[in-house]
Amino acid sequence: MKRILLNILIISYFLSCKESAGPEPDPIPTWILISTENSGLPSNAISKIVRDHNGNLWIGTDAGLVKFDSKNWAIYDTDNSGLPHNDILDLLIDSKDRIWIGTSMGLALFDGNGWVVYNESNSQIPGNYIGVIESDMEDNIWVFCEGLYKFDMTTWTKIEDADSILYSTTITAIHADETGAIWLGACSPPGIKRGLYKFDGHNWFVYDQFTSDPYGDNILCILGDELNTLWLGTDHPLIHFKESRYKLFYMLEPEFPSYITSLIKDQYGILWLTRSYGGFAKFDGQNFTSYEFTKFGIPFEPYSQSIAVDSDNNKWIATSGWGIILFNEDGVTIH
């Protein structure tokens, strides 16, 4: 029954608008709160949302992996699949539409038919906690697990000189650009290395002086743009970075943190972002428009670290305990 409630909510809203007296409101809602109460979600704690090449949405929760095909919800957990742990840390869709799942018990690969799990007992990676995953143009998989590792579907290779460069840092983001370079975002307390790191396959480049703020160089997320430019989400500014030149955009006054945790562009090229405890926002290149979670029936601002855009340009915004905000300024539609 829950599998069709999401579409029923949209239809019911439309009908109620037509039957109401007085001026007609917008016939289609601009947002819907999706939770365990009206969907097939097994939990309201959402860590990651990604979209595959067929338009399916894959949702990471603390109770397993969920696939939503716009009609049906399928749940994969440790009881019915090869998933090594139900608490999902990161998700990646590669060019072959395989899904990679980071957990605290290893890295899982699901190709639609079977499962493979890579961990410290059966591979060269030294630990089981896989919190960040990326794939490059040649379909190599990159993870950070007590060091930087590359997997070519046969062999795990440790990038040996990464240890001295990244010593004591916490890697929060990995991005592979069109040239094959690997970019790493680091987030650490004051006094410890942080900032942006680039590995071109041979040499390392460090960019760690974006601001004078002690937290301004914490890189929480990276989005690759056309022409190998990068958007960087940090504790404070949004940074546009290209060829060692950069520009800072402050959502709030510089002394107030923004905590930008994820970035994505929609079908019109508009940049959208989530904030750890401040809702989500869009950026048109000059100005920010903010949307606080309290405006969507949530009594406080939960943690959010993921946003996805579907084929209808709806934004799917993950929250840490309230499910998913489905948002579209032009009205939510699901096909």
Q: Low-confidence runs (pLDDT<50, min 5 residues)?
A: 8-22
What's the CATH topology name? Methylamine Dehydrogenase, Chain H
Number of strands: 28
Rounded Rg: 20 Å
Mean pLDDT: 88
Descriptors:
Methylamine Dehydrogenase, Chain H, 335 residues, 4-stranded antiparallel β-sheet, mainly beta, 2 helices, 28 strands
What features would you describe in this structure?
The chain has 335 residues and is mainly β. The protein has a single domain (48-284), classed as Methylamine Dehydrogenase, Chain H, CATH 2.130.10.10. It has two helices and 28 strands. The protein has helices spanning 2-19, 162-165, and strands at residues 31-34, 46-51, 57-61, 64-68, 73-76, 90-93, 99-103, 106-110, 115-118, 133-135, 141-144, 148-151, 156-158, 171-176, 182-186, 195-199, 204-207, 219-224, 230-234, 238-242, 245-249, 260-265, 271-275, 280-283, 288-291, 307-309, 315-318, 324-327. The protein has a four-stranded antiparallel sheet, covered by helices on one side. Strand 12 and strand 13 form a beta hairpin. The relative contact order is 0.12. Residues 8-22 have low confidence and may be disordered.
Helices, strands, pairings?
Layout: H1 2-19, E1 31-34, E2 46-51, E3 57-61, E4 64-68, E5 73-76, E6 90-93, E7 99-103, E8 106-110, E9 115-118, E10 133-135, E11 141-144, E12 148-151, E13 156-158, H2 162-165, E14 171-176, E15 182-186, E16 195-199, E17 204-207, E18 219-224, E19 230-234, E20 238-242, E21 245-249, E22 260-265, E23 271-275, E24 280-283, E25 288-291, E26 307-309, E27 315-318, E28 324-327
Antiparallel strand pairs: 1-28, 2-3, 3-4, 4-5, 6-7, 7-8, 8-9, 10-11, 11-12, 12-13, 14-15, 15-16, 16-17, 18-19, 19-20, 20-21, 22-23, 23-24, 24-25, 26-27, 27-28
